[in-house]
Write a structure and sequence with these properties.
Radius of gyration: 16 Å
Number of helices: 2
Shape: elongated
Strand content: under 5%
């Protein structure tokens, strides 16, 4: 859980940094989209992994 939170926080920090860079030069805008997609993918992966873990625990009992 801690690692997933740190990865999500890293994505947010990178999004903010690319937003700042884009304010100086609009050519960096695709990087915001890229890291936003990373954040969505990391979130989906964590939620899906948590649900699979819960289902596997339920089947063992």
């Amino acid at each position: 859980m801690l690692i997933a939170s740190l990865i999500g926080a890293n994505d947010v920090v990178l999004i903010v940094l690319w937003v700042i860079a884009t304010l100086a030069d609009g050519g960096y805008a695709p990087m915001i989209v890229c890291f936003f997609v990373f954040l969505v993918n990391d979130t989906y992966g964590f939620v899906n992994w948590s649900l699979m873990q819960r289902r596997q625990k339920d089947k063992k009992c």
